[in-house]
User: Fold these one by one.
Assistant:
Number 1:
Amino acid sequence: MTAMSKEDLEREIARARTSVVRAVFPNSTNHYDTLFGGNTLKWMDEVAFITATRFGRKKFVTVSSDRVDFNMPIPGGHFAELIGEVTKVGRSSVVIDVSLMLEGMYEEGQVLAVKGSFTLVAIDDERKPIAIF
């Protein structure tokens, strides 16, 4: 990573923060009318990818997902706000924490339903790791 001041890095991290709101509709739920876990992971990985790309403005691929905690079911008929935040920056990799906040469509307030961590690596056109900065 080239010399970047702590303030510049903090500014880039803040700028990359990503928030996406999705509606939990029947086409994404299971027979219990709760969001499929696979859909949850897909949504979280997409937000991690967007966050990493906004941070480094490079091509990124997911190389791992670390502990994902499903704290509660996500019922149909709710909103899911997915928030991605850069938590660690390496030479070619970045760790993104993604939180899924559950919100009733007709109610105020949110509660943390799912949290996970994703590691993404910046790559070149030959799919080899490259420096982020």
Number 2:
Amino acid sequence: MNGFLIALFLIIITIIILLIIYIHLYNKINESIIRIEEAESRIDNNLRDKYDLLNRSISLIRNKIELPQDSFKEIIKLRSRKISNFDLDRVLVKSYNEFLSIYEDNSKLRESDEILKVSRQLEIINEELLTLRNYYNANITNYNKMIKTFPTVVVANIKKYKERPFYDLKDMTDEDYEDFKL
């Protein structure tokens, strides 16, 4: 009887230790997920602000100069579509580059205080987006490593966690699947 109690006690202690390890690893993965979601949220807010500023800049520019018909066509199309933040970011980068090109090529625009203010706000947002992308990617790297390595892979498989893509401004709509890293 004494041997049975010792074996039972050892089994209970082993189960408790395994449970504590599981909880610790689960929390470790969830901390990484929380950081990723926080970065995604902040990126989302900055992208919305950038979108609003670029939309505002279109009307400001049109009030000052005559724009070609195809100017800012991609951002104008966005008004009626829902797309991912990855795709939104790509469109906004193109539209921002178009804004800069038009802004730098036209002296009337450079004299406008409103457009100068929008330009400065866009620069601030771009700097913050760069920082947030780097933070996001660092946490994605950590998360992807955790769900592939032992012992956290055990928790990841139980919870069915999947790899997440990096935020690297690559084109996901073309046939080159290698350009968007996992």
Number 3:
Amino acid sequence: IAPAAVRNAMYLAMEFASVSRMFPGRFHAGIGHGVPGWLDQVGQRPASLMTCLAEVTESTRALLDGQRVTRAGRHVNLSDVALTHPPKTVPRLSLGVRGPKGIELCNQLGLGPILAEGSAPDYIAATRRILGPEAHITVFVWAHLVPEDAELAREELRPTIRRALGDPDLAAQLGDLFESDDDRRGVSELSVAGDVGSCVEAIRRLARSGANAVVLQPIRGREEEQIPLIGALLVPALTHNA
């Protein structure tokens, strides 16, 4: 997910087009407004995060579609530009957003969201109702697979969930879990954790809520251990039971 506030739309389109040409049909491009605190740190916070995101996204999408673009906006100023090497397969483009304003912008632009970790099934379902059946919804979710001990997997993930429940940036996604001390329920609703069977069921629950794609985010520091396990055990189980 590229932060719109620190990307020029023309150069971003060039970068997206290059990756798409290298890996046609495999690249999923995301644009977000950027983390406000980080933007403050580097002196790049725009007056309106959403206006900036909208202008950069609209311009980048038009360029990827092969259009020649001229625009004089608050954040994007382009004069008769086009891609010399547009992608033969235009990549899927989504907005990396999480709150109500971001979801509404998805609706306005006809794009799907990439929802960050902390999205409860009810929030995914509400997002689906707003965006309709055609929108492609991608959901990142905390994950921890322990094949021999489902309860240990959930217990090891609880500190991550406990911290998230008090994060005001996640309030919209968490719903009534926000500022709750029910981290057991949090693990159940906000993660893919347990043995293979319980992880498969958690992914299916997210799909039933409206997710088209689920991206597993292992516990920080355990990625090198988890990725091979997920690939060897969880992916085949999902494919077999599809």
Number 4:
Amino acid sequence: LTVHILWINFITETLPALALSTDHPAADVMSRKPRDPKDSILKGIAPFLLIATLCSFTVGLSIFLFNLDNGNLALTRTMVLTAVVACEMFIVLSARSKRSILHFNPFNNKLILGAILATFSLHLIAVYSPLSKLLGLVPMGFFQIAGVIGLSSLVFVALETMKAVREYMVYKGIMSM
């Protein structure tokens, strides 16, 4: 629904973006070569964006198709919306660094962790409060929420695996960073 798109933009783009802006720069930021001004600002992050988008889409579509026959479209929409919010929060965790979690702790910034928890809490409040009527949401059971979060975490796993593979290829000299 249109209101779902507005809700996603409202809760996933405010607190996490503010928290990301306070994150410390990478330790090697001053030793990197400057970016060519002729290059796109998206150069080098296109694979990250592509994987994040494809994984989020796949998670949402899988939940939709799996629950399509349950006869409760509102529940299916609520689960898909929750998955999109969760996927966005896992993307925030992964987007903090070009390095994989093998070399970087994605959980060391308490502001970002707080923003992620606050964002997800706001979403759950919307699902379980009178605001749910306005947003067209219905309550989910514990196992539905756990399943949605579990599936959504695959976005984080995929992004971190991609970064680890890239680091390995750089280490082996197959490609350059």
